[in-house]
Design a protein that fits this description.
Layout (H helix, E strand, L loop, with lengths): L5 E2 L2 E2 L1 H4 L1 H20 L2 H31 L6 H25 L6 H27 L17 E4 L5 E6 L8 E6 L2 E7 L4 E5 L13 E3 L2 E3 L6 E3 L5 E3 L8 E2 L1 E4 L2 E5 L1
Parallel strand pairs: 3-5
Antiparallel strand pairs: 1-2, 4-14, 5-6, 6-7, 7-12, 8-9, 9-10, 10-11, 13-14
Bound molecules: FE2/S2 (inorganic) cluster.
């Protein structure tokens, strides 16, 4: 799913996170060097790194929060993972901040212990973030052959017949994610007409709009479940159920769905 916090399609969060990772791990390394060598200049460097790490972590959190609310599919395993990722990050920043406030030679052991805990949490958070990026494809902008650019529209909450696209807007096998109030609906052009189906894969909540649609079948990007776009029928697991579909009409060059 394309990141909501992006520059020309490139997600911002991954650009920013190397800074707090480097600064905070560097803090621990320099504080350990202070203890092992007795050189107090390492302690000063550790202090600068710690404050830089805390500030850059808070800055990196901004696009992360935007992606949490705007990009990660709701009611999905990815949403739970993203919540844990954010919570671990917040906690480790607090841990480093406490260590920073205690920075004096008398509590050096406690400071290093806190920073060690914070660094372990950094690795756990990095693991979760990696899974979100490389497995859940959060921030990945689809570019499979013929898919076209990421296409998304928001329509105020409504019911009945809703205008969702011009008839020539999508080429064959292209999709568009339409938000109708809280509902997320995928509009697709199968080449034999338009189809509309729910965006949520019933396996673990992957966004089908971020998957691939070929020959009237949509494949979930997370674990590969496949569904018939017209009927919603399950064609291949690991999902076990069908997905919901919506009636579609084309009239005078406009595509409508019934919600
Ligand atoms: S979420 Fe697992 S196949 Fe779709």
């Amino acid at each position: 799913m394309r990141s909501k916090a992006n520059i020309k399609g490139h997600p911002i969060h991954p650009i920013l996170i190397p800074f707090p990772i480097a600064f905070l791990i560097g803090t621990l390394i320099f504080d350990i060097l202070r203890v092992t060598t007795g050189n107090t200049s390492y302690w000063q460097t550790g202090s600068y790194l710690e404050i830089a790490g805390i500030i850059t972590a808070l800055i990196a959190a901004i696009p992360g929060v935007i992606d949490y609310f705007g990009t990660v599919p709701p009611e999905s395993s990815g949403k739970k993972r993203a919540a844990t990722h954010g919570l671990v990050n917040l906690t480790l920043v607090v841990v480093f901040a406490i260590a920073y406030t205690l920075r004096d030679d008398s509590s050096v052991g406690l400071i290093i212990a806190l920073e060690s805990v914070g660094t372990i949490m950094l690795f756990i958070s990095g693991w979760l973030g990696g899974t979100l990026a490389y497995r859940n494809q959060i921030g990945v902008d689809i570019r499979y052959a013929g898919a076209g650019k990421w296409n998304e529209a928001h329509i105020a909450d409504s019911s009945g017949l809703i205008e969702v696209a011009a008839a020539d807007e999508l080429k064959t096998d292209q999709m568009k994610l339409v938000h109708v109030g809280e509902k997320r609906i995928v509009l697709g052009n199968t080449g034999k007409g338009y189809v509309a189906f729910e965006d949520r894969c019933c396996h673990k909540g992957g966004s089908l709009a971020g998957g691939a649609m070929i020959c009237g079948t949509v494949q979930c990007p997370w674990h590969g479940s496949q569904f018939d776009c017209k009927t919603g029928a399950l064609k291949a697991g690991p999902a076990k159920d069908n997905i919901a579909v919506y009636p579609v009409q084309e009239k005078d060059g406009v595509v409508y769905i019934s919600v």
